[in-house]
Amino acid sequence: MNETVQKAIEQITYRSRIFPEEPFRIISENRELAIPKLRAAVEKAVREGEDLDEEYQMHFYALHLLAQFQARECFPQIMELVSLPEDTLDYLIGDAVTASLSDILYNTYNGDLELLKRTVDNPEVDDYVRSGILRVMGQLYLDGSLEKKDFQEYIRQIVYGKEEIGAYIYTGLASVICECHFADMLPELRRLYDDMRIEEDVIGGYDSCIDWMFQYKEEAFCRSPIRAADMLRGWAMFEQPAHEKGSGKDLEKVLRAVAAQQNRPVPKVKIGRNDPCPCGSGKKYKQCCLNKPKKPVDTIESETEKKKWLEHYPEAAKERKKGRIYLEDLFDAESIEIDRLLYLALMHRAIPIWNREPEEVVRNRKRVYLSEAFERFAERTEREQIQTLQQYDEKYTIHYLCEEWLSVLLDVLDEKEPLYERVSACYDEMRG
After folding, report:
1. Which one, of 146, 151, 217, lies nearest residue 184 by Cα?
2. Among residues 30, 65, 19, which one has the least CA distance to residue 225?
3. How buried is 129 (Cβ within 10 angstroms: 0-12 exposed, 13-18 middle, 19+ buried)?
């Protein structure tokens, strides 16, 4: 082996407080010479496990460098390492399990899909590893390397399987369903939530997942290609240059900026008599809604405020883009209008704790939006002779099940209100 490369390998064999910048550069420029040594380091870690010298670090660097080299011939050894028992894996690679493992596996994947599946199905493997492999499979689907039908069939086997595989893995599976935009798998997503197998503090409730399903971002599950040095030099295990260290003042500045953004008042937009009517009719304001009596739902919040809180609601298909699905592809306009009212009432609003709304304001907002939603819901169920909440849910529900939002409406209505008796009777009759 070239002496320069051999020296660089020696310099990354054990821990150091300073990131080994120059050795990484040399190794990166000598792929073929370095790979055998890097693979041997991974094999050594597998073989020795928790008996490995705690100062030995080469196997950790090797994983990232092999991923940079896209050394697919080393994939079996890498999979053997990540399949070690949880405590052993934590001892060997620590936070890399959550920080970079998906990228490592994706960049070294050799086409052995069955090995990926067997590892996900193996209860002895660390949950974070299994969830990370699902992300790799999601990326393979987005790449076109994994057939949609086959991938969805595998997902359904997990969702409807009798063996419980862990909340973290189910949560990762839900994120894959959303980021792959599998809108035809909404029943499977709902099943995971109904069975309480999702960690909602990680990805939010079912309503948040619906928004996620229709968001198209540039980010992928896994990065490729990667540079090992760029991934590792900022880790806390290495001393950082003084100018890169954050300070308490920096954090305070960021918090103040966030607070200012959250507390920024929503501008009130004055509509001129000759302006287009905000209802979207195409008529002038004076010829349309100016003198019409306003419903409570039209006055509870301004159109600007509603737009703010509907920011993450699935975007309408104004300009269609190839390969994308839109809410209108699955639900009609009436369903969406009712759902938007429910969303404005029930979707969690990220308001800083120091600027919380009074409970009565929140309660009144829910009452107004849900009451309007109920009137439209009641009209539709009567018109279409829908007999049960389940029938409505199966055809028209988007973010919130009927039983869920009707229960909230009954809670915020005064029992003496005429609407309370109507909602209560409808709820009891249609629950089946």
Report:
1. 151
2. 65
3. buried
CB 271 within 8 A of CB 289: no
Q: Which residues, including other chains, have CB under 8 Å from residue 359's CB and lie 6 or more apart?
A: none
CA distances from 251 to 17, 97, 258, 283 (A): 25, 28, 11, 50
Summary mean pLDDT of the chain: 91
Task: With CA atoms as reference, report the closest residue to 146 among 222, 66, 206, 73.
Answer: 222
Handedness of CA 278, 283, 288, 290 (dihedral sign): positive
Residue of 335, 428, 422 whose CA lies nearest to 380: 335
- Could you give the CA distance from residue 261 to residue 351 in angstroms, rounded to a whole number? 11
CB neighbours of 84 closer than 8 A, spacing ≥ 6?
46, 49, 92
Bigger pLDDT: 275 or 88?
88
The sign of the dihedral angle between the CA atoms of 140, 142, 143, 145 is positive
For residue 65, what pLDDT is reported? 98
Mean pLDDT of 333-342: 97
pTM (predicted TM-score)? 0.84
- Cα–Cα distance for residue pair 35/70, rounded to 1 Å: 10
